[in-house]
Amino acid sequence: MPSPSPGSGLKRARSDTAGSGTTSPKRANSEMGQDIGDGGHATPDVGIDEYMRLQEANQEEDIGLASIPAMENGDHLTGAEQHTMVTNLCKMPLEKGATWYIISAKWIRRWEAATGVAPSKDYANITIASLGPVDNSGIVHLGSKRLLPDLELNIDYEIVPDAAWDKFVQWYGQPRITLPREVITYSNETRVEVYPPMFRVYPLLPSALARSHIEISSLETLSTLASRAATSIQLADPNYRVWNVPATTNVDNGIRPTDILRGSLLPIPSDSKTPISEFVKISDILIVETQYQAGVWTLEAETVAIARDPTSDDELGPDDAPEPGPLFGQGSDYFSKLQASQDANKPKAATTTSTMSTLKNTFTSTFRGKSPAPAVQRGTVGLQNLGNTCFMNSALQCLTHIPELEEYFLSGLYKRELNYDNPLGMQGQIANVFGALLHHLYPSPNTPIESATKSYGWGSSANSYAPREFKHTLGKFAPAFSGYQQHDTQEFLGFLLDGLHEDLNRVLKKPYVEKPEWPEEGGDEKVVAKETWEGYKKRNDSIIVDLFQGMYKSTLVCPECEKISITFDPFMYLTLPLPVTKTWRHIIHWVPWDTKKRTLAIEIEVPKDSSYGYLKKLFAKWFGVEADNLLAAEVWSHKFYKFYDDYMNLTELAEKDTLVVYELPVPVKSIAKPPPMNSSFTFGAKPKPPPKTDPNAPFLIPVFHISEAQRNAAFGVPFFVLLTPAEASSREEIYRAVVDRCERWTRNRNNLWKYRGPRVASTEDEDGEGELVEQIEPEAVHVDGAVTEIRPDVDEMKVEVVRDVEMEPVKDIVTKEEPPAGPVEENGRLASPAQPSDDEEFEVIGPQTELFELRLFNSVTTTGIETGFNLNASSTRWVDWNSREQAARSDPTLSDPESEDGSEVMVGKPSQPTPLLKPTDALVCQWSPPIQSHFFGNESSLFDEWEEFIHPDVQAVRDAQVKSRSGRRSIDIEDCLDEFTKEEQLGEDDLWYCPRCKKHQQATKKFELWSVPDILVVHLKRFSNARAMRDKIDALVEFPISGLDLNARVGERGESNECVYDLFAVDEHMGGLGGGHYRAYAKNLSDGEWYHFDDSYVTKSSAEDSINTNAYLLFYRRRSANSKVAIEKVRASVGSDQEPNSQKSIDMAEQPVVRAPDETDPPPFELSDLDTLVPPSAYETPDSHTGYNLPGPYRSNPGGSDDDPTFTTPSPVTTGSAGAEYDSIEEKDAEGVETLGGVTVEVSTTTTVDREAV
């Protein structure tokens, strides 16, 4: 079933991994979708022809379940078979209206452990019999079925289709808490609605009815919502109407008519067929209004309802009313009848005795809503939070305090530059709705309050507005921002600026422009930069480009031929990394392959979010070994818990977890792989041919130890043996290899072998510590046929010297040589100390017999190296050696006789004997009490002997950190700029192709600022994104309020004060990624004061208050910039033009139109990401600059030309501009895919426009 990616959860990564969708990782309000159905999970043996037949015959069978026995009644299914069935059922595609079920991820983890497919340390004793029904109590509010807020898919919950849910009920019983969810479609995106809309319902006071709440599917209509709201408060009166109330309404004591402001309510029509999914609410509060006397309503609909925005040319939503006239027009609809009824009954209101004396004494007619408070200071109108929309509100407040944008949109100039036929734009709708928003935030000072209220629909109070229309339009073009989950304000800002640019692009037909290349013999930077900018402007020219865009300069230098390549790339905002190092400490256990070298307990300290690949490279450097020959494994309960791939996040390991790195004599990727499973299929995917296997690949087999004295409980440290196919075909050779690897773990290692000839035991122990150990000295025998043997007795060990007549004459005697004593240095690198040699050489005949019983184990469910986690003393099923030998004799091919379907996979016909082992096997040494006591007793066992080791590099880093703490200073923006512009070397996996050397090179790269815009947006990179893990840096970054001088950092210098900036706004983020809140500070040009914008609440503040640990986006304005210049440029370009001849025929109902800025995921933490006070060289390796081989800290790759095709722009620029400014428009449209902060969105428009090009 769908499971998290390896980086998202340490213990859960053992399951199959589902492909991730394009939605935000936060699945708060509308989730799943393409997350279910991806990822090639293993399925039973069903051919494609059989699959097609089953698909036509039975929908359940068409996903590969027919071959599972007892499918109909679920009886006698093994845990693995249950898991396979559910996994395949979860591959069913999403269909609108279908029902899926939410299941607690904790219960799913227990179930996976019980089936044996994904063992867990937390649930080691759980079995299928003891599991019990699905338990969802941990993810709902106590005593209810309401989900807890902000739950995450794969972390807190999983989702399964109804067919899989039925199987769980059939196998484990009826759950107490059932959480069904419907599949919905919104903006052409299909997904499971994890969090259905929930509303709080209040009766309009005075009323004896109690408040309530409802949860309703988005597929339901508004009429159903109104009906459910009335029913929830047990309203018997059939005459009622329902209103959506602003979030700022105080509901502590209920809602009275006197709490209602004019123009603040949103009607919920009782006859509307509009789906709730298309309704843009202003809050989750509903009030139910009844008539205070027959035919007379308490509230006057026309005055209390939000009026439609007259400034927008676009129909903003199906729930918005046309105007003028009643909210829903004249006719027979709900509000027409309401108006007629109200008008007919108005004269009776003053004379008819009311049954509600309170209202009789208060009103003589229907209540029109209280008047708004006097107009607030211009530029201080708040934005209401519509549900996790603070990310949008804070960015909008910062943008709307830019005077150029204010004048450009309020004056209507933007309408003269709308580019309706831009396939990369949004038919002008984003620009229109942004202009309408500015009219709400900056109403005309000459407009009376009453008129302004009716025209602009000031939200719930005099100083806040509900941006419903903006949110609705945003969701249409960017499904990633639909719904009400949390988002990154920087990602939203990038999308909005890009959308505004394309909607207002003055270039009606983009020409094809080639990007200039840096001359081979060198060139003039200014000339190339000018050509780059002019070529860019031929395709991109708008008010957004005029205000927000500058250019980077990227320099690459080949380390071999020293060729220099310089490119220039536009940027929309400046992303700065924070020079803050977060390190991670742990003790890693090191087991070298050479049994004479000691095992070590190594203290490491690595950058946060380092990978296992980085750890292996570090050990390769320290111990002079090959990184590809290292295997990282977590050991728990004397067995392996999990094996880790290079890309996985090392620093997610828990503090008490035991990680062991094993050295192997061959690369891990060269070992024998398990036979390929029969071709499986996924919906919409073609079956893949099985991968080829190497019949000569060596077998890497894990070895475990169990004790007969402890009822076959495991003990000791597991290790590996490496066997050639020929060795794996002989039980004697397998036994000998295991004994050989056992030497490392006992002080009595010499007693593991049979010897020929005299031997005098050393007076010191084998590890050279100088301690006396148990001496077992064989009797002196002077005949060649004498062999020293260890024979177990009932209670003690006996050493005897016997005559081995079969060994006379002895052939193929192996001489076991000991390396010289003392520490070893290899090529100047520190290696583990070797063991001292004995005083005399002796001949080894072979291993002692009957040391242990060697058993063969295979858990069947393993698809790689056996972990042994399912090795249970009471229920282990051993593989019979005799059956393996018989199978090898009867079939010369490598087959899998114990596979679930009994099929045989032909690998090849080897010339050597058939191996008795499979790559998924494990060997288990079963030790009898006396022999175990002799070799692994308290005085003889070396399982717990790990020599502590601290590498000098680690010690140097710790010393530097201690020193830095004593003189620590805060970070300022200059430190961030230094980090951004420092020279770095590309990683091994991100090489640059040098056209002069004709090969890929690890070039050095350097970013610089070439030109800067009038409005400089600085993005402080507080959030790291290392694969599936994100983290926030809460360090204080000091930045100047006035006088940010960039003259020395800008390549294209002008006058001395041209690059001096003053701060005018700050977008801040409080909290972490699991849940946070965005707010904004902005300087109001009307009075020169600073204000703090917290959604609806606006208070006076100061610029100094914005300098805090939450500052995220900084908005600077060039001191020499003149707002009138940009506006006059626009007026000059459109002043002489007549209204464009534009006949639009745009159908937005049947097409997904989605746009997003082109930003790559930020790379993970690198070696260079160290505190400036810590020497970066402390972590450098001789062959690689970083553990990740990715460029730059917290930074995307620089853009490049054909010389450097692997690069993209470090910070997002306008999509279709910087992202593809030199590609043909046909190529751009063909791709149709853009990315936004890791979210992939599709571009698809249908536009019929007849417009003359300017």
Automatic annotation (TrEMBL):
Q: What is its EC number?
A: 3.4.19.12
Extent of Polar residues compositional bias: 17-27, 1206-1217
Q: Which reaction does it catalyse?
A: Thiol-dependent hydrolysis of ester, thioester, amide, peptide and isopeptide bonds formed by the C-terminal Gly of ubiquitin (a 76-residue protein attached to proteins as an intracellular targeting signal)
Mind listing the GO molecular function terms for this protein?
A: cysteine-type deubiquitinase activity
Q: Which residues form a coiled coil?
A: none
Cross-referenced SMART domains, in alphabetical order?
DUSP
Q: Give me the stretches of Acidic residues compositional bias.
A: 312-322
> What ranges does the record give for the region Disordered, renumbered to this chain?
1-46, 310-329, 816-841, 885-914, 1155-1222
Tell me the ranges covered by the USP domain, including all copies: 381-1119
Write the record's keywords in alphabetical order, separated by commas.
Hydrolase, Protease, Thiol protease, Ubl conjugation pathway
Q: Which residues form the DUSP domain?
A: 77-184
Q: Which GO BP terms apply?
A: protein deubiquitination; proteolysis
Q: Tell me which family the UniProt entry assigns to this protein.
A: Belongs to the peptidase C19 family.
This one is known as ubiquitinyl hydrolase 1
